[in-house]
């Protein structure tokens, strides 16, 4: 819209947007909101609340983040009976602050992405998020060097076009490319920047991925999906921007900083990543506590899943000076379960073992013919009185220990039991802990 145009909206007494012109509604929807929902643009919501509290018209300029740009607006909020009427003018786009360097620009470009990938000019994968592999049930390392189409099944957008093909032809960025993950069929949106080599030639894409929660045909979205969607849109993007900016400041890309300020930036980024992990845990919590939650049960090889989980944590373990021993490659244990969820459980168990293991020690991942996978460490162990507590919601044995939300083991046990299995712990303080996942065996056919 031009700067001369004004968009109007109405906010009810509960802070929900009940009417909006197209331009204002579009801005709100891109922020994760919509009609009938709480006003999702914080600056506008604040002015509406202020006008209501003071019972006088409020008018001021604000700057709103809108995807990859900032929008300068002039907003007037005025009480009208039980509602607040908004008049929004200006609509001047300006590029937000960008730290120097292509990598830093990419961090902001896909700040709202859940995970990342990279490919070369021939569209061969050169990097795939290991955490995404654990979450969606694919081997991130095994995909390296393979065509990008082994990971994504690209689909036409609403205009019956494939944005990635147009971007490839023109050597430019693309966004909101619909796709499905090949390993799981999960629907996603893919965006990317075009990479350049030292000569300025096209060198591939560096991109980010967001999941799409789709309700079944003919049904309304469930409460859990709506909440998860709000968490994703309302929290993940601003947290991603905070983390990216803090990392850029800490890297001193714009010049040298004092040691104190660089440390503050690192603390901010670390706290942001902790909150991002909490969002993931809360989304999983909503899923497993739904009455209709049902994992996809199928024959799987527990030994193979255990090897994959150990492989996904190998870099983290190496950085901590911990060795992971995994089941041998010729070992196979057929069980019944949801591959992605079993991998999620074992990544959680192995990750905890690595976290609490001292440098120079080992974590042993083993399986047996009874359909059990055991993760054993030599850390400080768990006192008998705390062994039941570790599986309770939001419980942490040592609240002073950094990281963790107190949800991982609770979610893991809920998942295991939903698949007809369970998780048990054996531990002696000072001698480590053994967590065992058991699943129903897959009978021979």
Write the layout of secondary structure elements.
Elements: E1 7-11, E2 17-20, H1 22-30, H2 42-54, E3 58-66, E4 69-80, E5 83-94, H3 102-109, E6 115-119, E7 125-128, H4 130-136, E8 152-154, H5 163-170, E9 174-181, E10 187-196, E11 202-211, H6 223-250, H7 259-288, E12 298-301, H8 302-312, H9 314-319, E13 323-325, E14 334-337, H10 339-355, E15 362-368, E16 372-376, H11 408-418, E17 422-427, E18 433-438
Parallel strand pairs: 13-15
Antiparallel strand pairs: 1-2, 1-5, 3-4, 4-5, 6-7, 6-11, 8-9, 9-10, 10-11, 12-14, 15-16, 16-18, 17-18
Helix pairs in contact: 6-7, 7-11, 8-10, 10-11
General description of the model:
Helices cover 33% and strands 26% of the residues. The chain has 11 helices and 18 strands. A 6-stranded antiparallel β-sheet has the order 7-6-11-10-9-8. A 5-stranded antiparallel β-sheet has the order 2-1-5-4-3. A 5-stranded mixed β-sheet has the order 13-15-16-18-17. The chain has 445 residues and is an alpha+beta fold. It has 4 domains: 88 residues, PAS domain (Beta-Lactamase, 2-Layer Sandwich), CATH 3.30.450; 110 residues, Beta-Lactamase; 66 residues; 141 residues, 2-Layer Sandwich (Heat Shock Protein 90), CATH 3.30.565. The chain is globular and about 70 Å long.
Strand content: 25-35%
State the major sheet.
Answer: 6 strands, antiparallel
Specify the number of helices: 11
Mean pLDDT: 79
Shape: globular
Taken together, the total number of domains comes to: 4
Q: Write out the strand line-up for the largest beta sheet, numbering strands in chain order.
A: 7-6-11-10-9-8
- Classification by helices and strands: alpha+beta
Helix content: 25-40%
Low-confidence stretches: 96-110, 214-227
Report how far apart the termini are: 65 Å
Q: Kindly state the number of beta strands.
A: 18
Question: CATH topology of the largest domain, what is it called?
Answer: Heat Shock Protein 90
